[in-house]
Amino acid sequence: MPAPVADLVLTGARVIDPETGLDGVRAVGITGGAITSVGEAAPPAREVWDVAGQVLAPGFIDLHSHAQSTTGLRLQALDGVTTALELEAGVLPVAGAYARAEAEGRPVNFGFSASWTDARMHVLDGVPLVADASLDLFATHQSLPNWRGPASDRDVGRILDLLADAVGEGALGIGVLVGYAPDSGRAEYFRLAGLAARLGVPTFTHTRFISTAEPGTSLEGALEVIAAAAGTGAHMHMCHVNSTSTRMIDEVAGAIDAARGRGVRVSTEAYPYGAGSTVIGAAFLSPEQLPRLGIGPQQLTYLPTGERIADGRRLAELRATDPGGGVVVHFLDEDDPADLAVLERSFTLADTAIATDAMPLVAPGGGPAPDSWPPRPDMVTHPRSAGSYGRTLRWLVRERDLLTLTEALRRSSLLPAQLLEGAVPAMGRKGRVQVGTDADLVVFDPDTVTDHATYTRVAPSSGFRHVLVAGTPVVRDGELRTDVLPGRAVRSGAV
After folding, report:
1. How many CB atoms lie within 10 A of CB 40?
2. Same domain for 42 and 148
3. pLDDT in the model for residue 1
4. Residue 90: phi, psi to the nearest 5?
5. Is the domain of 286 the same as that of 270?
C-alpha cells in the first residue's frame, strides 16, 4: 500500500525535538495543519522544500506578549514565534477578545488570561467591560483612584467571580499585575490563588515589589508567590524574573529552586534584555520609589517623545498628564559587564522559559500606532518585541554559550507548552516535532540567526528562513507573507 501523499515535506534539515531528544537529519511531512511523518526517508508529497543546512524545530511559544495587534504579531512571527499569548496582564471580557481576534484574523496562534487589574478597575472604579473593548484598558485607566488599593470582602468576591466567569469562557489562567497595585491586600492575592487552584488554571504574576531595600524587596515579592503556591496548591507563574528580581536574582532563584524541590508549583520566565518597558504611571516608577530600584529618572525613556526623563519634576509631570504613556526602564546597563552578569544569572535558573514581554508600537507623541505593515519608521517600542528569540540564539547560545541550542529551543517551545497543558490540553500538541502534533514550526540558520531591533529602531530578526503556523508558511524564505492569517485561538479546556 503506497504511503499517503503529504501536503508538504521539508527535507535535509537538522530536526530537533526537545521532548524526545531527536537531533538528526530528517524529512518532516505535513498534511492538514499537522505533522504526519518524521523520518529518514521523505514520503510522497505535493510540494517539497529543501532546507538542508538549517535547523527545524518547534515554533516558539511566547507566554507573555502584549503586542496583540496584527503588526505586533507579524514582528514576532519574524522572530520565530508561532503562538503568542497575553497572560501576564490578560483581558476582560475574555470572550470579546477572542471574538475580535478571530474576526480580524491573526498571523500566529493567540490566547488570553483573565485580567485581575481589569476586574478591579471595573468593580472598584466602574470601568465598563464591553465586548469590543480594546486590549489596552489597563493603560487607559491608570489614573483612576481606587483600583490600586484594598478591596472589601464583598468586592473581592465580585472580582473573583468575574475571573471565574472568564476562565469559563476559555481564559488560559489569571493574569495578576499585583506590582501595579501593591496596596491591594495579601489576603486577596491568596484567595485568588485558591480560586486558580479550584479551577485548575495557572496564575501569571508581576510580583508586588521591585527593590533591594527592605522592607518590600524583590525577594519578598517572590516569596509571596511561592507562599501562595505552597498554601493553595495552585500553579503560580512568576513573570520576567530578570526585571522584577534585578540584583536580587541569586536570592530569588535560590528560593524558587528550593520551593520546587519540595513540590511547590512555581514556574518562571525571562527575556534577554537589561531594560524593561511599561506605563509611566506604574506605582513603582513614582519619583520616590525609583531609588528602591537603584535608578533615577534619567534611566527612563518616555517613548512618545523619545526623551530621557531629566528629573523627578518632569517624571511627576508625565505621570500626571499621561499615566498610560509607554516608557523604557533601564534597570541594568547592558554595556556594563557586571550588570550583564546579573542578567545572565536569570537564565541559569532551571526551567526558566524564554518569554518576550512584547509591547505595542508607539507613534510619535504617543498616539495610536497604525496596524499596518511594514511598521512606519517613526514607530518605537522595546526591542524585545521584535528580537527576543533571535537575541537568545545569538547572545545566550552562540556568543556566551550560556545555553545549548537544544536547551534554548526547549525553553522557547516545549517548556511553555508543558507549563500550560494541564489546563490547556491543546498545548500537548505544540512545542514538539512529532507525528500528530501541530505543524507550528520554525526553520532557521543557527550560524546567522540574530536580532536587529534596538531601543531606537524597530527591526525584525533575520535568519528565520521559514515559520509555519498550522502548516501554513507565515514567513517563507525569510520574507513575511501578508496574505495569510492562519493563527488559531488557544483556550483553556479545549482539546
Report:
1. 8
2. no
3. 56
4. 70, -175
5. no
Give the residue among 85, 98, 84, 87 at the shortest CA–CA distance from 170. 98
pTM exceeding 0.85? yes
Question: In the chain, what percentage of residues exceed pLDDT 90?
Answer: 95
4-32: pLDDT as tens digits = 899 999 999 999 999 999 999 999 999 99
User: What's the confidence (pLDDT) of residue 137?
Assistant: 86
- Do β-strands 326-329 and 236-238 pair in parallel, antiparallel, or remain unpaired? unpaired
Helix (H) or strand (E) holding 15: strand 8-17
Residue 492, in any domain of the structure: no
Q: Residues 366, 291: one domain?
A: no
Are 322 and 340 members of one domain? no
**Domain match, 295 and 403 both:** no
Q: Residue 495 domain-assigned?
A: no
Cβ-in-10-Å burial (0-12, 13-18, 19+) of 165 comes to middle
* Residue 135 in this model has a pLDDT that exceeds 80: no
At 39, which helix (H) or strand (E)?
Answer: strand 34-39
Residue 457 domain boundaries: 8-58+431-480
In angstroms, rounded to a whole number, what is the distance separating the alpha carbons of residues 142 and 156?
20
Phi, psi of 478 (to 5 degrees): 80, 0
Q: Report the chain's C-alpha Rg in angstroms.
A: 22
| Listed residue (20, 12, 64, 40) closest to 406, CA to CA | 20
Tell the burial category of 251 from Cβ atoms under 10 Å away from its Cβ (0-12, 13-18, 19+): middle
